[in-house]
Amino acid sequence: MSTNDAPDLPVPDRPPVTGPAAAVAPGRDAGAADAPERDAGTTDARTAQPDTVRFAALWDRYAARVQAYALRHVDPDTAQEVVSETFLVAWRRLVDVPGEPLPWLLVVARNTVANHRRSHHRARLLAHEVARLELVVPRAVDAPDRVVAERDALLRALARLTAREREAVLLVAWDGLDPSQAAEVARCSPTAFKVRLHRARRRLDAALAADDEPTAPPARTPPTPPTTAATAAPARG
């Protein structure tokens, strides 16, 4: 069984939860693209246990404690994701999990929480920028749906630019200034402004193109720790 074949992690029994991301474990990147697939039938040389048995024991003993840590920092739904992602890292790096695993697991959980917070912060900033731009470009009451959709997509794309890039685009496209005039407002040289405007337009085009793409399904799922010796045993062909 490879990591990609494994179903979702169950929710720990304790504490209750009502509700994956690149998590960085101590000292290295644990991203999905870099993590080797694991064979569920391999054996941990330190414990002489099959990997699935050791992982099941790790889950049974520490999942609730990792979840309790996550619940102190994020909402219950996000805490469940943190637990899943933490044990995904543990599964893929089982050989690196030390004999006293709890501190190691909590470092992974802490970094996963930080990743989620950064992601949520970016989402809030994006929503804030879109709201500010909507004040400048209110929706036309009788505008066709296509026009409204294009306007909304443009505002989202503008919101993804940096403040300087967005200013460069708006000074030229909305305020009608030529690059030399816009450079004066932006307090930079005309040459620097032209470079900034060129970069901003390229990023704007890329953001608009990305906005048109359908949302991709999740690329991977965390493994399920087996709960009994019978379910832990690998299938024999």
TrEMBL record:
Signal peptide: none
Segments of skewed composition (Pro residues): 9-18, 215-226
Domain RNA polymerase sigma-70 region as annotated: residue spans: 58-122
Domain RNA polymerase sigma factor 70 region 4 type: 152-204
InterPro entries in UniProt: RNA_pol_sigma-70-like, RNA_pol_sigma-70_dom, RNA_pol_sigma70_r2, RNA_pol_sigma70_r4_t2, RNA_pol_sigma_r2, RNA_pol_sigma_r3/r4-like, WH-like_DNA-bd_sf
CDD domains per the UniProt record, alphabetical: Sigma70_r4
BP GO annotations: DNA-templated transcription initiation
Bilayer-crossing regions: none
Region of interest called Disordered, as start-end residue ranges on this chain: 1-48, 207-237
GO molecular function: DNA binding; sigma factor activity
Domain of life of the organism encoding this protein: Bacteria
Keyword field: Sigma factor, Transcription, Transcription regulation
Pfam families associated with the record: Sigma70_r2, Sigma70_r4_2
Record's compositionally biased regions (Low complexity): 19-34, 227-237
NCBIfam families, alphabetized: sigma70-ECF
Protein family membership: Belongs to the sigma-70 factor family. ECF subfamily.
Protein's recorded name: DNA-directed RNA polymerase sigma-70 factor
